[in-house]
TrEMBL record:
Recorded metabolic or biological pathway in which this protein acts: Carbohydrate acid metabolism; D-gluconate degradation
Keyword Cytoplasm appears in the UniProt entry: no
Gene name per UniProt: Idnk
Gene Ontology terms describing biological process: carbohydrate metabolic process
Record-level GO cellular component terms: cytoplasm
Family per record: Belongs to the gluconokinase GntK/GntV family.
Keyword hit for ATP-binding: yes
EC class: transferase
Matching SUPFAM superfamilies: P-loop containing nucleoside triphosphate hydrolases (SSF52540)
Catalysis performed (reactions): D-gluconate + ATP = 6-phospho-D-gluconate + ADP + H(+)
Lineage: Eukaryota, Metazoa, Chordata, Craniata, Vertebrata
Molecular function as annotated in GO: ATP binding; gluconokinase activity
InterPro entries in the record: P-loop_NTPase (IPR027417), Therm_gnt_kin (IPR006001)
Protein name as it appears in the record: Gluconokinase
EC number(s) from the headed UniProt entry: 2.7.1.12
């Protein structure tokens, strides 16, 4: 697509990385400043007319609202109103799959601060996207080329 790519894990503060490396799940207080920083990156790219892809475990609806609207999503604490224009237009791609497949992939990952033991806490926190969120769900049980094609098709459809 020729878009900029950001991995949200690169933007975790050292305290978050340390906490996860010790096997301690992050909480909302840990994640909100990180998500606000990610919103700022997306907002900067949007302002410059640059499309971007952000790989991010935006597990809760509130987290996705912070990515769209920044800190104002927390301050207002109001549900999104139908027809309300979001601060940023984001298509969320929910990569969905069974815990055992994801656990197998995490076991193969080397040099990452999040140990596979934290996967269950992420599943416990997960609030899958739902209407009126702008999202698609893609199965992780498909091949990588099929996953990429499905995401690209959704992006190109707008």
């Amino acid at each position: 697509l020729g878009w900029k790519f950001y991995d949200a894990d690169d933007y975790h503060p050292p305290e978050n990385k340390k906490k996860m490396a010790e096997g301690i799940p992050l909480n909302d207080e840990d994640r909100i400043p990180w998500l606000c920083a990610l919103h700022d990156i997306l907002r900067r790219e949007d302002a410059s007319g640059q499309d971007a892809i952000l790989a991010c475990s935006a597990l809760k609806k509130m987290y996705r609202r912070v990515l769209i609207s920044g800190a104002s999503a927390i301050e207002s604490n109001q549900p999104e109103q139908p027809g309300e224009k979001p601060a940023l237009k984001i298509l969320f791609v929910h990569l969905d799959g069974p815990m055992d497949i994801i656990a197998g992939r995490l076991e193969k990952r080397r040099g990452h601060f999040m140990p596979p033991e934290l996967l269950k806490s992420q599943f416990d926190t997960l609030e899958p996207p739902s209407a009126p969120e702008n999202f698609i769900t893609v199965s992780l049980e498909k091949s990588l080329p099929e996953i990429v094609l499905e995401i690209e098709s959704a992006i190109l459809r707008g």
